Design the sequence.
């Protein structure tokens, strides 16, 4: 990698041209990634891509005037000091807040680049162009605001926010909640059955650990294989399966860990308290994100948990 201070004027201009082309393509990728779910916001990024293409055209014109037709390919990852942005095509799903943050960071970085480049050049026309482009990047925030006003009026923005929330529920909350409920409830019976059958904390811990991890693997595969997300909009199956599997394991591990305490009744008392907290958390999530009435959510979760808990104790005590 080269230091920015070591670049010649010709190389700085070549780097600027490559940056503008890359930024334009990034904005185009963002627009295409948002097109299906957020068409109005996609239009904003399409117009911003057009702005970057105009900057590139101006840079090429002055480069040809000063240095000729051949433009060496110098890219930002070959020069120290630039931020390495994650490829847009590897980000899935694209969220409005995420891509707007990406755009803001790109504009800030490009503006600083142009100001540093303008300070180093001795050619008046190149200095003027780089200074103008730095100001243009400063104005991009205002341009983005104008484009949002033109393309994303309040009603459409509210609708896009609603779609984003729905996608978050489908892709994160729903698989996570399903896993947490399964892990917290389904592992109660084997854990407490083993605890009351043996009266030994370690045996209960081993059974609870096996049940938690086994349930996490099972639920993770079940969620990942349920659908590929192409029709339901539920996102990448690998991500959903991972979320579901981890939350399932977490739900079971919570009331299993107390059985690391050697004293059986102390461990059991703490485990029961953890179960109450877990069921309360599940009820809150269902109320907060799934629009379930709080009393109904608490009753349904508590009733199901109590049945499984009682089943484990009865089997273990028999």
Sequence:
């Amino acid at each position: 990698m080269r230091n920015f201070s070591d670049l010649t004027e010709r190389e700085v201009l070549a780097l600027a041209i490559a940056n503008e082309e890359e930024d334009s393509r990034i904005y185009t990728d963002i627009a295409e990634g948002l097109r299906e779910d957020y068409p109005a916001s996609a239009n904003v990024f399409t117009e911003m891509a057009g702005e970057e293409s105009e900057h590139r055209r101006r840079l090429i014109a002055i480069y040809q005037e000063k240095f000729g037709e051949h433009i060496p390919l110098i890219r930002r990852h070959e020069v120290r000091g630039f931020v390495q942005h994650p490829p847009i095509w590897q980000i899935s799903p694209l969220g409005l807040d995420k891509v707007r943050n990406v755009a803001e960071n790109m504009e800030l970085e490009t503006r600083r680049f142009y100001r540093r480049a303008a300070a180093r050049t001795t050619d008046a026309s190149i200095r003027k162009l780089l200074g103008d482009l730095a100001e243009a990047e400063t104005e991009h925030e205002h341009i983005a605001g104008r484009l949002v006003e033109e393309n994303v009026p309040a009603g459409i923005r509210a609708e896009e926010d609603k779609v984003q929330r729905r996608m978050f529920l489908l892709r994160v909350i729903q698989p996570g909640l399903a896993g947490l409920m399964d892990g917290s409830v389904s592992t109660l019976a084997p854990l407490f059955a083993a605890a009351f059958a043996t009266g030994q904390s370690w045996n209960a811990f081993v059974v609870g650990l096996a049940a938690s991890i086994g349930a996490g693997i099972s639920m993770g595969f079940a969620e990942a294989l349920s659908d590929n997300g192409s029709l339901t909009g539920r996102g990448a199956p690998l991500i959903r399966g991972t979320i579901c599997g981890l939350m399932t394991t977490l739900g079971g591990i919570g009331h299993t860990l107390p059985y690391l305490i050697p004293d059986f009744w102390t461990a059991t008392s703490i485990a029961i308290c953890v179960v109450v907290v877990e069921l309360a958390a599940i009820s809150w999530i269902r109320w907060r994100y799934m629009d379930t009435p709080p009393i109904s959510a608490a009753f349904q979760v508590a009733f199901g948990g109590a049945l499984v808990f009682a089943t484990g104790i009865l089997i273990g005590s028999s």
